[in-house]
Specification:
The structure holds two protein chains of two kinds.
Chain A lengths: L1 H20 L4 E2 L2 H5 L7 H5 L3 H39 L1
Chain B lengths: L8 H19 L15 H27 L3 H32 L8 H21 L4 H25 L20 E2 L2 H36 L1
Chain lengths: ~90, ~220
């Protein structure tokens, strides 16, 4: 537990320190959100086509999750088998 | 750890977080910035690869140290598989970075210090697997690769976090580049970004623990 805590502290410290070194950063504010001079995919979004992309990515995520869950369950089954075998011995 | 890797709650959490990241990352308002345009959303998918890689490789080196002080096949297997998935994350980080760079920096590989350093870092870890494959004796393999793992991690940190900052880099937060100024993330982007970091890392740990468990079963059956 002590080790886990010190590792966690070390890691967060490492990531926090990276932001301290950064030089002259441009602060993003509300003006950047309203800046109409920069071209974005506004038309694409207005037509609702972005939801096609979202649907595809959610489907992919779901498919891969299903696959990994099945693998996890398969390993659990194997572990049980090994345990039963060891106890029977 | 042995119990935790067989629990479901954090795996469900990983999937829920990733579901949020995909939806929010594509749909939420983002700042309209020159050069980046809509590709700023790649932030939620490219950068977490590196965070995930560092966390996995950190876990790997922790188990390498554990294995030196208390040698056991289990510690060695943990160390190996965390490194395995960590490197996979790194490779995906480089590939996604090249696709993003092709759009924002004009070419996939501009010999940016951070690009070069991360490529060297990945190569150092490739050598780790080659080293493992070249040693027959299990005990020697575990010991030597644990020592190498510590050296690899010790060189990776300056490669990724210190050296790129000492020179001009196209990456945000490294040196001063006039073409692509470093942007400071605002709270709206941070919310999705940090969720992405946690979600992606958990996915990485999930895959790594499945590989660990497979190897542990294999190890028992071989005995």
């Amino acid at each position: 537990m002590k080790h886990t805590l010190s590792i966690a502290l070390f890691t967060t410290g490492m990531f926090l320190s990276t932001s301290l070194w950064a030089q002259e950063k441009h602060k993003i504010d509300e003006n950047d959100y309203a800046n109409q001079s920069v071209e974005m995919a506004d038309g694409f979004r207005a037509e609702g086509k972005i939801y096609v992309v979202v649907a595809v990515m959610v489907a992919l995520l779901g498919g891969f999750t299903f696959y990994v869950v099945r693998m996890d369950m398969k390993v659990t089954g194997l572990e049980k088998k090994v345990e039963e075998f060891l106890q029977g011995k | 750890m042995d119990k935790l890797i067989r629990k479901w709650w954090w795996k469900i959490l990983a999937v829920v977080l990733m579901l949020y990241v995909v939806c929010a990352g594509l749909l939420f308002d983002v700042p309209r910035l020159v050069i980046l345009n809509e590709t700023i959303r790649v932030l939620h998918f490219h950068v977490p690869m590196w965070f995930g890689m560092i966390l996995l490789l950190l876990a790997s080196v922790v188990y390498a140290i554990k294995n030196l002080s208390n040698p056991s096949p289990k510690n060695d297997i943990y160390s190996l598989e965390f490194a395995n998935v960590g490197v996979a994350f790194g490779v995906m980080g480089i590939v996604t970075g090249m696709i993003w760079a092709n759009f924002t920096w004009g070419e996939p590989w501009s010999n940016d210090p951070k690009q070069n350093a991360s490529a060297i870092g990945i190569l150092i870890y490739f050598a780790y697997f080659i080293l493992r494959g070249s040693i027959e004796d299990e005990n020697t393999k575990a010991r030597i690769s644990a020592v190498y793992n510590i050296f690899a991690f010790a060189i990776l940190i300056p490669l990724l976090f210190i050296l790129p900052r000492l020179t001009d880099s196209l990456h945000p937060g490294n040196g001063g580049n006039p073409g692509f100024n470093a942007y400071d993330l605002d709270s709206k982007l941070r919310k999705v970004f940090y969720t992405a970091v946690i979600g992606w890392s958990l996915i990485g740990f999930w895959i790594a623990t499945i590989r660990v468990r497979m190897r542990l079963v294999q190890h028992v059956t071989e005995q």
